[in-house]
Specification:
Strand order of the largest sheet: 1-2-3-4-5
Helix content: 10-25%
Largest sheet: 5 strands, mixed
Number of strands: 14
CATH class of the largest domain: Alpha Beta
Structural class: alpha+beta
Shape: globular
CATH superfamily of the largest domain: ANL, C-terminal domain
Strand content: 25-35%
Order of helices and strands: HEHEHEEEEEHEEEEHEEHEH
């Protein structure tokens, strides 16, 4: 905004009751949200019958965490506002992946292509992997940090001598350069030696008509080493038992990937940006 001569509207806090009204009143041309906010807007707001002027609104941007394709499509269908999914890191000072402005060139389930930097996928030994093969996402560019403040050992772990940065995210690149994030290395669930990405569980839960928020995490298990805990928040005025949610998972995930524990909660722990703090769920269970 400072470079382009634009303005920024900064509400004191997010509220579903005045989100669209603020965009209409201040003539916003785009907005930035996180998937949790998109879920709340889909569940709790409607434009029908409101005197809103959104003719200037070009798009919304989703960042901070992966946006489930089902939620992405539901938002666009309900509000007729396109969402551009992006991805950035604190260590890169800006987004590192973004979908194109052209809606026809975007891909659901992907935060887009590398913008302003290079990206590659590597295995545990640091060998670059071909398209379609899952590994760690690495970034290199002028936007990558120089170092962690007064933490040389942490810096050495994250930054290679040639400038490539370990993001700690798992994913793969397709033939067009779009990255698909499958999870975080530290959040990967290893059940009986098999890797399970929490996002796979999340996305199934988000498709359930009663679920507003969902997050899966690994928990210690004597038999399998780790098993799955999934915590959910239900939409207002919706009722659903943990047994019903488990049956839904059995149908869509199969027995092995169905969470051992499913908990319905009033809210999930979130950071300042609204991103769900998945690992805190494990701490709460312990």
């Amino acid at each position: 905004p400072l470079v382009s001569g634009g303005s920024v509207v900064m509400p004191h806090r997010f509220s579903t009751s005045n989100f669209w009204e603020l965009i209409s009143e201040y003539r916003c041309t785009w907005f930035s949200v996180v998937p949790t906010i998109i879920s709340y807007l889909c569940s709790a707001t409607d434009m029908e019958g409101k005197d809103l002027n959104l003719s200037q609104l070009r798009f919304g941007r989703s960042a901070s965490s992966a946006l489930p394709p089902s939620l992405h499509k539901a938002f666009e269908k309900k509000f007729r506002v396109s969402i551009i999914e992006t991805m950035g890191l604190t260590e890169t000072a800006a987004p590192v992946f973004s979908n194109p402005i052209d809606q026809d060139k975007r891909k659901y389930g992907s935060p887009g292509i590398a913008v302003g930097n290079e990206a590659k996928i590597v295995d545990k030994e640091g060998v670059e992997l071909p398209c379609g093969t899952e590994g760690e996402i690495m970034i290199r560019g002028d936007n990558v940090m120089k170092e962690y403040y007064k933490a040389p050992e942490k810096t050495a772990e994250a930054l290679e001598p040639d400038g490539w940065f370990h993001t700690g995210d798992l994913g793969y690149l397709d033939e067009n350069g779009f990255v698909f994030v499958t999870g975080r290395i530290k959040e990967l669930i290893i059940k009986a030696g098999e890797n399970i990405a929490p996002r796979e569980i999340d996305e199934v839960m988000y498709k359930h008509p009663a679920v507003l928020d969902a997050a899966a995490v690994g928990i210690p298990d004597e038999e399998y080493g780790e098993d799955i805990l999934c915590c959910c928040v239900l939409k207002p005025d919706c009722e659903c038992t943990e047994e019903e949610l488990r049956a839904y998972c059995m149908e869509h995930l199969g027995e092995f990937k169905t969470p051992k524990l499913i908990k319905v909660m009033k809210d999930l722990p979130k950071g300042p940006s609204g991103k769900i703090q998945r690992l805190k769920l494990r701490e709460m269970e312990e």
